[in-house]
Amino acid sequence: MCGCDRGEEAVRYCPVCDENLCSACVEEHSKNRLVEKHHAQLVSDVKRDADQLLTAPDTSSRCTVHNSMPTTFCCLSCRVSLCEDCFADHPGHNMVLLRDFD
Questions:
Q1: Which of the residues 22, 46, 59, 73 has an alpha carbon 20 to 30 A from that of 79?
Q2: What is the pLDDT of residues 16-51, one digit of tens each?
Q3: What is the per-residue DSSP string for 5-30?
Q4: How far does the chain reach from its first CA to its final CA, in angstroms?
């Protein structure tokens, strides 16, 4: 669902804003000079990419860099799962919270 007060189904997701957008919000988003260069992706593409990554054999519940840290994010741009410490190393990437796909 879109986060606006219209209560409509989200059709796109902006990874920079971390917002789901309905059709009306997509139009507003593209006209706003502050965010006009953001690339809002189709929600179906984001879900498909996340599902593929989350079912990949190399996905684990522990960060590969910080072994003691649980993975909490999925970087769809790099196709890796990340802990909170690694999140800062992926600025502007298409990121989703793993808990959103439990």
A1: 22
A2: 788 889 999 999 888 888 887 887 888 887 777 666
A3: TT-PPP-EEETTTTEEE-HHHHHHHH
A4: 17
